[in-house]
Amino acid sequence: MATYLSPNSANYSGRSGTGSDYIHQQIQLMDLNEDFPKLQEKSVGILGYACDEGVRRNQGRVGAVEGPDAIRSQFAKLPIHSNKKSLLDTGTISCADTDLEGAQQLTAEKVNQLLKHNVFPILLGGGHDI
Fold first, then answer.
1. pLDDT of 11-35, one tens digit each?
2. pTM of the full predicted structure?
3. C-alpha–C-alpha distance, residues 84 and 100, integer Å
């Protein structure tokens, strides 16, 4: 069964700069299970896709399931040079019990939800199936 996991602040840490110099200082966590208004400003939303099932079915090396949080933890340390867009972490789709099709369907629904709220989605995988 595929599930949606709320964003985790533990993925965002790093050294502090003066003001909001780094991504971990500016990123906002947005739970897609909660109501939120359509954003007026241009926003970018990160959505994780933690799934090894496509890799497993193609007899590849599993491990991609760890990708979204591994990318987030490194991404958080990068400097940010613009405040023109809001940067959001919108959680992760988790594929459990080999339900690849369910994970893809839930991902499509969450991406649609982001687009309707004026958020440009960036997906972090996961296998090649996204």
1. 998 877 666 688 898 899 999 999 8
2. 0.90
3. 36
